[in-house]
# Entry
Amino acid sequence: MGMLRKIKTAPLEDRMQQELAARRKAAESDPFGFAAFDHASAEMGGYSDYSYWGSTLRAFFQNRVAVMLLAVLLILLVFTIIQPLLPYQYPANMIINHPTTGVQMSNIPPAATTVKAVAPAGTRLIVTPWEDDQWMAVSNVLTTIKARTEFTVVEYGDAYCRVELDGQTGYVKNDFSTKLKLPENPAEVPYSSRSNFPIQLYTAPDDYTNNGAPLFASRDALRAEGDGAVTTQECALRILPGKAPFLFGTNNLGQDLWALVWRGTRTSLFIGFTVAVIEALIGIVIGVLWGYIRSLDRLLTAVYNVVDNIPTTIVLILIAYIMRPGVRTLIFAMCLTGWVGMARFIRNQIIIIRDRDYNLASRCLGTNTTRIILRNLLPYLVSVIMLRMALAVPGAIGSEVFITYIGLGLPVSIPSLGNLINAGRKLISTSQSYQLVFPTIVLSIITISFYMIGNAFADAADPKNHV
Amino acid sequence: MARYVFKRLLSAVVTLIVILTIVFVLVRQMPIEGYFDNFDKLDETMITAKLNQMGLNDPMHVQLLRFFRQLLRGDLGTSARYRVGAPIGDIIVQKAPLSIELGVLSMALAMLLGIPLGAAMARAKSKFWDKFGTAFIVFVNAVPAAVYYIYLQSYGSSLLKTSMLFSRDDWRTWILPVVSMSLGNIAYYAMWLRRYMVDEMNKDYVKLARAKGLSNVKITMGHVFRNAFVPMIQYIPTSLMFTVCGSIYIESLYSVPGMGGLLVDVINRQDNPMVQAIVMIYSCVGIIGLLLGDLLMAVIDPRITFAKKEDMR
# Structure
């Protein structure tokens, strides 16, 4: 902004500086001489570089919170749009199954990576018959020891014990899940032991499975040996073949919450923006007609009285109840009443400024009505129109959440923030509350940003604040 | 004055009739399943017979006239699915008192907290109360209520060590629904009262009062507040009416057996006559609230003239 102004006004300012320097010189030589009328200096006094939009933007950028939120919002919007194009993303509605067991990957807590464990070089792994070009399904479970089978403990550790069974040597967990039967001094090996549960015999003192299911290792890090494989280097064992992490975890169906949240944000923002634009268009057109054409005033006032009297929520519920749930239904229902506020405001403003002198003059000069409305009237209202549009977006998103709660919202196949929050609502006091928290955070950032930015912009657009 | 009241009443009645007609016509567009409790078991002829018997196959204007005639007798029809055959009027009379009790409590709380908050914000411009109040107002207005109610219910009930659901006999379970219902109104009162009070404080009579040597408290309470409160009075009946009708969301969230929860119930059970009746009640409440607000303003504010208003242009 500032730069632009510099370019525009630099020549003028240069000239002023030169003039002033010349004046100062003249004053030094004759300090008490009369200052005669000088056309150039008269011009300088009338010079103003006030521009409405320049001042508005300058006032807006002085509001640090609003600027910060604007930056956050822009980043969020851009990210929402480009998210599907990023690498390692799951499709939003894909139910992710485990490739070997076929079990849905449900309720996996949020994690930055899918690496479940890291096996050091030289670890023996058992290969499960599943592989593709890049990945192999592996685990380190040698065998499952049946309940109450005796085995020999050859080395005692607090977490794992090295044991021997039928000539195989391996490790078993030593915790509440196995409850090994141990002598009084367990460190004095060897001795015979057993567990009352079936327990796993691992090749290494660590559990390289995903709760019993195989993990996936990159082929490059493995070397075939016998019926198994040995890691040739430190090897990350992942819960799925692929590097896409579950940043927000997964839901109970095994869908990636990260993908769902951004897809939902796209849906909700689409609804919000569409509603804001349609409301503004209808509101402006009707507001201008209502304010400008006297004979329409009675009719439109009557319509306004009716529409404004029905609570918005009730209209929303009724329309959503009658029509099939879907994005279009919601947008239609929200627009049905939303234009009223905008139209009324525009009407009031137009009535106030319609007969100002400059408009009378314009009309006398033969300007046609369209031009008067577009060039003389509407520019006055731009700031308020933008404020209303900014506030319509969080309003629409909130309505969507509400209508989904009632059970009249979008079908589950169209993820939206309302759907996600409604699904997460039941989990708030469980360990899966992240399924509510992530959509809520994204939604709150969006709505608060729009609200604050809208208000800050309206303040900035008020010429009273330009001084 | 009488003329004004009469005109205002007349316009309210006309609006009422228009809105009832619109709702009635809209509800007729819904699938007919909502008029039967056992739709799947009926065959074609039985459905037609039942529709004829209920008069749903008559032309729209005949249905509409019959509906208004019934309405004048106080008959809202009978429930089709929710409680088969029960008169809707009886169901609502049963449900309404609880919603009214909750609503009155929450309105009282909202005024008790919202008005002092607004006054404190106006007096201490850009000090603690102003910042606190502004943050509160931004939060309540920007974050959808549907979201923060969920958190309030969960954390509030574990904090108060009460059940998450409402029960009539346990007063502690009343706290959260009442508080939730009043949050929006607290923010609303605080926001507008602050705005009106700041406007009033810049007027000349305040300067005069200060020049007379009146104390700040006296100016704020005796002059500014009284003038600033007048425009807010117009809103109070509307918000009271809506709060009294019960918040649809909160009643359903806390399983309060009131009017708002009833609407969600009958929507989920697709009971067309009940949906129609409750939607109509909610639509009328807005009109009655605005009417009361206008009349109240006319009584209270002597600056409103009842002579024919000068044309604004």
User: Anything to note?
Assistant: Chain A has two domains: 115-238, 257-465.
